[in-house]
C-alpha cells in the first residue's frame, strides 16, 4: 500500500501488527483480499511519531491470546502458591535455619572486625 503523510509518500506491506493474520481456509483469505483491491483508497493507520510504521488493521488480537493469557495467569498463581506454601509450611526446615545462622555469624564477625579496625585504625 502507498500512502501520504504531510506531503511525504510512504509504502508498506504490513496488514496487521502482532500476530500474523491467518485464515482457516482459502475462501476466507480470498474474501479478505477482495476487500482491498489494487487502486482502491483504503484507510491506513500509522504512528504519528514515525509515519513509516503503518498497517491496515490495528489492534487485532486473536481469541487464542485470551485463552493463553488466562492459562499463563493460572500457572503464575499455582507457582506463587507453591512457593508460599513451601516457605510457610509447618514442618521445621532445619537446614534453612542452619544456613541462616551461618550467614548471621559471618555477618556478625565481619561487623566486629570492621568495628575493631575503625577503633584501632
Give an overview in words.
With 121 residues, the chain is an alpha+beta fold. The protein has three domains: 2-55, no CATH class; 62-90; 91-121. It has three helices and four strands; from the N terminus they run ββαββαα. The chain has helices at 26-34, 63-87, 94-120; strands at 2-5, 8-11, 45-47, 50-55. The strands form two sheets. Strands 1-2 form a two-stranded antiparallel ribbon. A two-stranded antiparallel ribbon has the order 3-4. The model has no long low-confidence stretch (mean pLDDT 80).
List the helices and strands and how they pair.
Elements: E1 2-5, E2 8-11, H1 26-34, E3 45-47, E4 50-55, H2 63-87, H3 94-120
Antiparallel strand pairs: 1-2, 3-4
Percentage of residues in DSSP E strands = 5-15%
SS summary, helix count: 3
Tell me the strand order in the biggest sheet: 1-2
Which regions contain 5 or more consecutive residues with pLDDT less than 50?
none
pLDDT averaged over residues: 80
Give the proportion of residues in helices. Answer: 40-55%
Largest sheet: 2 strands, antiparallel
User: How many extended strands?
Assistant: 4
Measure the end-to-end span.
76 Å
What structural class do the secondary elements suggest?
A: alpha+beta
Spatial shape:
elongated
Number of domains: 3
As a whole number of angstroms, the C-alpha radius of gyration is 31 Å
Amino acid at each position: 500500500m502507498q500512502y501520504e503523510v504531510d506531503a511525504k509518500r510512504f509504502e508498506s506491506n504490513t496488514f496487521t501488527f502482532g500476530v500474523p493474520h491467518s485464515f482457516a481456509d482459502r475462501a476466507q483469505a480470498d474474501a479478505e483480499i477482495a476487500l482491498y483491491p489494487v487502486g482502491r483508497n483504503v484507510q491506513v493507520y500509522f504512528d504519528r511519531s514515525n509515519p513509516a510504521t503503518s498497517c491496515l488493521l490495528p489492534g487485532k488480537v486473536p481469541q487464542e491470546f485470551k485463552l493463553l493469557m488466562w492459562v499463563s495467569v493460572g500457572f503464575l498463581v499455582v507457582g506463587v502458591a507453591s512457593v508460599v506454601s513451601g516457605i510457610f509450611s509447618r514442618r521445621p526446615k532445619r537446614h534453612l535455619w542452619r544456613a541462616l545462622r551461618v550467614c548471621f555469624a559471618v555477618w556478625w564477625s565481619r561487623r566486629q572486625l570492621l568495628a575493631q579496625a575503625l577503633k584501632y585504625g
